Amino acid sequence: MPREKTTRRDTGSAVKFYTEAQWRQLSTLRARAVEIMAVLDERGLSSIVHGSVCRGDVSAHSDVDVYISQVVSSFIVELALERGGFSILNRELVHATPFHAIKAHIYLEGDSVVTLPLTSPAPIELEFYRFGGSLIQEEVLKNKRVAGVDKRLILIEPTKEGHIETPIIGNEIITARKIGVGLKIVKERLKVLMRRDEVGRTGVYLKRQLAPGDTFEALLKSISDRDPVVRRRVQKG
């Protein structure tokens, strides 16, 4: 899939109308999200879904991103998913930067991923999900849609027929107010995504695929024993 470019200047708002195919795609992805979240909820694992599934601007390339905000045993999460009938295709441990929480990514069939923090996320990291649009299971079941910003740095505001989109550059304060986040996260995402356009896809400090039989916690301990940056982040909790 070609990487979407950010919109560099305010070119005004545009109204988008969805086709029947787009509405069906949105319904399919939302049903998938509810299935995953329901399985997690049965195990006492609260979660959210975030991204285009929440805003409504889905495409053929859209996936389902579910996030568990609390630090829990990855074994419990994997067991819940497998007992719920989901096949785990791949698992990755990711540390975006030394200042961010270390995360576990569990990839499922159907272009779905469940993410959970292995160390406590900072409040601004949690705002990242609201920045792109996020919903809890009950809100998805009620067909709620929310405003959020896509990877092009376009604010997507849902309407009954589709959505309104507006570039956020030059509209940062309004954007923060409309999606209910602090101005700091808006500026941070602007910086990150615009840098991605200038120098290519931004890298991560650490990304490690798990072998069969490995656990996230055991791999994280092994890495932290050798890497002082990771060790400091683990010690912070």
Helix content: 40-55%
**What structural category do the secondary elements indicate?**
alpha+beta
Number of helices: 9
Order of strands across the main sheet: 7-2-3-6-5-4-11
Biggest sheet: strands, sense, closure? 7 strands, mixed
Give the strand content.
15-25%
Task: Note down, in words, how this protein is organized.
The protein is α+β, with helices and mostly antiparallel strands. It has one domain (14-210). 41% of the residues lie in helices and 22% in strands. It has 9 helices and 11 strands. The protein has helices spanning 20-42, 52-55, 74-83, 123-132, 137-141, 172-179, 183-199, 216-226, 228-236; strands at residues 14-17, 48-50, 64-67, 88-95, 102-108, 112-117, 134-136, 148-149, 154-158, 162-167, 206-209. Strand 8 and strand 9 form a beta hairpin. Residues 1-9 have low confidence and may be disordered.
List the helices and strands and how they pair.
Layout: E1 14-17, H1 20-42, E2 48-50, H2 52-55, E3 64-67, H3 74-83, E4 88-95, E5 102-108, E6 112-117, H4 123-132, E7 134-136, H5 137-141, E8 148-149, E9 154-158, E10 162-167, H6 172-179, H7 183-199, E11 206-209, H8 216-226, H9 228-236
Parallel strand pairs: 3-6
Antiparallel strand pairs: 1-10, 2-3, 2-7, 4-5, 4-11, 5-6, 8-9, 9-10
Short structural description:
Helices cover 41% and strands 22% of the residues. By secondary structure, it is α+β, with helices and mostly antiparallel strands.
